[in-house]
Amino acid sequence: QVQLVESGGGLVQAGGSLRLSCAASGAASGRILSNNGMGWFRQAPGKEREFVGSINWNGSSKTYADSVKGRFTISREYAKSTIYLQMNSLKSEDTAVYYCAGGRRAYAGGDVKDYNYWGQGTQVTVSS
Questions:
Q1: What is the SS3 assignment for 15?
Q2: Is 46 helix (H, G, I), strand (E, B) or coil?
Q3: What is the β-pairing status of strands 122-127 and 10-13?
Q4: pLDDT digit string, tens, across residues 48-59
Q5: pLDDT value, residue 26
Q6: Cα separation, 30 vs 24, whole angstroms
Q7: Residue 77 to residue 96: CA distance in whole angstroms
Q8: I need a labelling partner for 81 at 20 to 30 A (CA). Which of 23, 39, 54, 96 fits?
Q9: If DSSP codes are grouped into helix, strand and coil, which group holds residue 113?
Q10: What are the Cα distances from residue 39, in Å, to 5, 13, 21, 123?
Q11: Cα separation, 109 vs 79, whole angstroms
Q12: pLDDT for the residue numbered 119
């Protein structure tokens, strides 16, 4: 099994930055982090969960939603079994609960069905 735990959320002013972390643990965490794609999603109140970005198994390919492209960056650190989401130039519309997800295969896309492990989420609030 794999457990994903997000951290780094909080309250920030518009234009500011935050870095979210997602640490993986559990018997299969090493295998998942080394061989599978990982992703970030977010969910605002009253809205469906939406794709933010993903990174493939070796970090050579990254995909972002148009709404965050150029502002958010995903990275992964294998030694710490952790992936990150660096968020810059934050806007009020970025306010949401952010979820880390572990993919089923080496490449993971924007569909929630591409993922079978989920964290509990971390709240990001951007004040205008």
A1: coil
A2: coil
A3: parallel
A4: 999 999 999 999
A5: 85
A6: 8
A7: 24
A8: 96
A9: helix
A10: 13, 25, 12, 16
A11: 24
A12: 96
